[in-house]
Amino acid sequence: MIKVTFITNNSKTVEAPDNSNLLRVSLREQGGIPFKCGGGLCGTCRCRIESGIENTDVIKPKERKHLTDADFASGHRMACQTFLNGDVSVSWIPLADRVAKTSASEPSASPVAPAASVADSGTDS
Question: Taking the CA of residue 116 as centre, how many other CA atoms within 13 Å lie in the half-sphere pointing to its CB?
């Protein structure tokens, strides 16, 4: 049996058989890794292997659609595509925090006219 520690979930530690899928372990043991599709299409289960990256299998083509080489180098994987062959510790950004971070970094929905547009209109104020 291998040990999986879900750091973001109060470091909950569970046991699982060798060659277990990380997302399935999370679902079965209430580990807390967020997910939507479970099949590598959405990227929601993005997580970071904090320790034990050597105990994960090869990177899948579906992961390459959502993660960069820099992501892989820093230990990121997609839980639905990752199988475990030894002990790992995993963390993730909760979905609520992802949404808040994304909203804060996106430009506002209301367009702001550039200051020059009034002068360009050809009318005097």
Answer: 0
List strand residue ranges (DSSP E) for the chain, in order: 2-6, 12-16, 20-21, 46-51, 76-78, 83-84, 88-91
Splitting the chain (125 residues) into consecutive groups of 10 residues, what average pLDDT does each group show? 98 98 98 95 97 98 97 98 98 84 56 40 44
Give 3-state DSSP helix, strand, coil % of the chain, rounded to 5. Answer: 30, 20, 45
From the CB of residue 71, how many other CB atoms can be counted at a distance below 10 Å? 17
Q: Distance between CA atoms of 46 and 66, rounded to whole angstroms? A: 8
- Residue 110, token pair as written in the block: 């209301």
The verdict on pTM exceeding 0.70 is yes
Residue with tokens 């590598």: 40
Question: Is the CB of residue 74 less than 8 Å from the CB of residue 46?
Answer: no
Q: Contact at 8 Å (CB) between 90 and 49?
A: yes
Are the C-beta atoms of residues 8 and 34 closer than 8 Å to each other? no
Task: Provide the pLDDT for residue 97.
Answer: 83
